[in-house]
Amino acid sequence: MSTDLALPSIAILGAGSMGGAILHGLVTSGLAGAGLTATNRSAAKAAELADLAGVTSVALEEHPDANTAAAASADIVLIGVKPAMVPDLLREIAAVLRPGTLVVSLAAGVTISTFEGILGAEIPVLRSMPNTPALVGRAVTGLAASASTSEADLALVQRLFQTVGTVITVDESQIDALSTISGSGPAYVYFLIEEFAKAAVDKGFTEEQARLMTEQTLIGAAALLEASGEEPAELRRRVTSPKGTTERAIGVLEKARLEGIFTEATDAALARAKELAAGA
């Protein structure tokens, strides 16, 4: 492993589904040689992570001061608890953070200003929005940085999230909009697969056959898109022979205003994100 790529010591406070996914990505990458600590409320959850190489997994029910101890010794602190729990956790660790410690939020809807209001504006804060394919190393993570975050700080946190996929750096004002595309996006894909499979069952295929056809068709199409570097419209054109079966099917989808439906759906998700940010 190149020392240029190695990450400093990291603490993940609240290593639940997303924090746990990032933890696994870091372990797999081998970049966290300087130390990796994860905290969870229950001993059972902490035990699930205890066998990961190089990870110190601690349960709050056994060590109530685990969050402060982990934060005090880490160079990067990831906040992975539920959004409503973030302010209390920040107040708990604020006094022990060393100067220059990077604090990274995994909590949806919690603003950088909320972090700065408790930790102080001199602590570099980054707000992240990973999505669930982090579990298999194929996440898209949106990343927004506070004014006190240096270019070097940003590059360091980008490298951390690159262990679980792709990173897109945006202004914080774009984080909620990003969440409606990459954050919610996997659910849109799964919904499409569900409905596509139902259509296959209606045509006489078994549920197992329908699932195999639809899932592998989507996975294969995505793999071809990635490998070819072609535009989606061009790949679609190559499948759509003039006056053929696919052209007729595409015509039905166009009449259904599919492009407008995706805009409407993501607009609805964005409106809800703003409601949640306002406490509604």
Automatic annotation (TrEMBL):
| Primary enzyme class | oxidoreductase
User: What Pfam family is a match for this entry?
Assistant: P5CR_dimer
Alphabetical keyword list: Amino-acid biosynthesis, Cytoplasm, NADP, Oxidoreductase, Proline biosynthesis
What parts of the sequence cross the membrane? Answer: none
Cell compartment(s), UniProt: Cytoplasm
Asked if the Swiss-Prot or TrEMBL record annotates the protein with the keyword Oxidoreductase, the reply is yes
Reactions accelerated catalytically: L-proline + NADP(+) = (S)-1-pyrroline-5-carboxylate + NADPH + 2 H(+); L-proline + NAD(+) = (S)-1-pyrroline-5-carboxylate + NADH + 2 H(+)
Q: Which domain of life is it from?
A: Bacteria
Span of the signal peptide: none
UniProt key word Oxidoreductase: yes
User: Where mainly located?
Assistant: cytoplasm
Extract the PANTHER family matched here. Answer: PYRROLINE-5-CARBOXYLATE REDUCTASE, PYRROLINE-5-CARBOXYLATE REDUCTASE 3
Question: What family name appears in the similarity comment?
Answer: Belongs to the pyrroline-5-carboxylate reductase family.
The name this protein goes by in its record: Pyrroline-5-carboxylate reductase
Q: From which organism does this entry originate?
A: Microbacterium terricola
Q: Which gene encodes it?
A: proC
